[in-house]
Amino acid sequence: MAATADANACVESATKVVVAVKGLSLCELEDGELCCGFGGTFAVKFPMIRRPWAMQKLQCAMATKADYIVSNDSSCLNAFTRVDRPAG
Question: Residue 32 belongs to what H/E stretch?
Answer without folding.
Answer: none
